[in-house]
Amino acid sequence: MSRLWLVFLLCLISFPATASVRIKDITTLQGVRENQIVGYGLVVGLQGSGDTLANSVFTAQSLQSMLDRMGVNIRGVGNANVLRTRNVAAVLVTADLPPFIQPGSRVDVTVSSLGDATSLLGGTLVLTALSGVDGQTYAIAQGQVAVAGFSVSGQAESVTQNVATAGRIPNGAVIEREVPGQLRDIGSLILILKNPDFTTSVRIADAINAYAARRYGMHVAHEEDQRSILLTRPYRIGTTRFVAEIGELSIEADTPARVVMDSRSGTVVIGQDVQISTVAVTQGNLTVQITETPQVSQPNAFARGRTVVTPNTQIDTDQSGGPISIVRGTNLSTLVNGLNKIGLTPSGIIAILQAIKTAGALHADLVVQ
């Protein structure tokens, strides 16, 4: 049994038909979201793996500006001979601001190379301002860059693992400015489903109303559509406590019938509600083997002529047919058992599912990546 086939079997493990999830795990509160900030900076302290200043003009200009601010003047005649260091790299620094974060808090930052640096391993990010789309500075980042990969090379060989030109700085940014807006300013309380579905929306509203009827003696939720549920906060409870209480309620989220196939890795994932009408399936494999055995033809002794290479090609074909099998499935377990009886590789499973969808017997969305 091939390794890809084992991966396929693991992807098709049959889970229980019903699984309870918390409301806060499948929804978000409208208006409560993260904000992205970005900045441009320099990473120093690299071991000769930084930008080539002759090729990365912006790195050279940034280095000159930084030294000017520190009182070191390197501008003038012969400047091209001065800036020959490979220990500096220009980087883009990004971070996500959690909602309602306060000044003085810390967040992680991601550092990514902009020039031709080969590795940021061992580098230190110099003080960098991070700004939002409004141009205001919301955080200041600095610190040692943690890189998960490495890249080393010699004259005849190089070894690279993961990505050495990007890294993270845990708690590397200090918040300097509060993001405008508070929880009390968001207006109506609306829950937004991460995976919109009419059934899930109704179940969330029913679960919240059942809890609110016992707790507050009133209904507080109404499903607007497949994506949003409108909440009415009782007067005698705060917004934070109210959202926390309903977030802990559990429901059974409904998922669409869907088959996701990745032809590159041979991975197939089948949803629990996928059904196949009764169909007969057969699958055969065609193997073509081409062998090239060039031969050398040369003239006899003392004869006029030249030595040439003549081609000699041999083609062998082998086509093996499979038995015809009946496949049908009213649930995930039955469907998996039917597909396993055919004994196919992942590529064969992908081809058969596509053919069954074309025949109109696969009652699910087919997503091919």
Features:
369 residues, alpha+beta, 3 domains, four-stranded antiparallel beta sheet, disordered N terminus
Overall description:
The protein is α+β, with helices and mostly antiparallel strands and 369 residues long. The chain folds into three domains: 3-13 and 258-286 and 322-368, no CATH class; 20-31 and 186-252; 35-175, no CATH class. 22% of the residues lie in helices and 36% in strands. It is built from eight helices and 24 strands. The chain has helices at residues 3-11, 23-26, 57-69, 79-82, 198-215, 239-247, 332-342, 346-358; strands spanning 20-22, 27-29, 35-44, 88-97, 106-113, 124-131, 137-144, 150-153, 158-161, 166-175, 189-193, 221-223, 228-231, 250-252, 258-262, 267-270, 275-281, 285-292, 295-297, 308-310, 313-320, 325-329, 362-363, 365-368. The strands form eight sheets. The protein has a six-stranded antiparallel beta barrel. The chain has a four-stranded antiparallel β-sheet with strand order 2-11-13-12. A hairpin with an 8-residue loop joins strand 4 (88-97) and strand 5 (106-113). The protein is flat. It starts with a helix and ends with a strand. The model is unreliable at 1-17 (pLDDT under 50).
